[in-house]
Amino acid sequence: MEEVLRQLPKKAREKHNENKKFFAKLRKKPPKDLDYTMQELHEAEFERTDCLTCANCCKTTGPLFTNADVERISKSFRMKPQKFIESYLRIDEENDYVLQQVPCTFLGADNYCSIYDVRPKACREFPHTDRKKFQQISNLTLKNVAICPAAYNIVEEMKKLIR
Predict the structure, then answer these.
(1) Which terminus of the chain faces fewer neighbouring Cβ atoms within 10 Å, N or C?
(2) What mean pLDDT do residues 93-120 have?
(3) In terms of Cα–Cα distance, which of 59, 31, 64, 61 is closest to 159?
């Protein structure tokens, strides 16, 4: 997995223009069964991919924390939301709550998440490849293929299936 992660940003850069054109076409005229196709590709990839061998998303990027995330996680810590925010989060340039640092504070050396049961919505949904109306998040997907080997593989399979 280390070698895959080392090569991933370069591979994603090499495919960037091709992927950008593909997503532009997809946005203009998405196939009727796109959501179904994406669900199948997503499920097939995650049958093969074990996130615990990777955790690159947790090591290199941080999720956005919604107010609901803050409430849920702080409650699990038996902590007031404001104290949780002060301890772990900061406000970014887009006025969103994000982690103060990466890798994620809640990621263990074994790649397990210490707040997995109450993790942020963004973490639960990452890499967003099974999302409905997938064509609407192509900019996010372009970023995610450089972070997540599974997202990269899903997009490569998608391009073979959808012409």
Answers:
(1) C
(2) 97
(3) 31
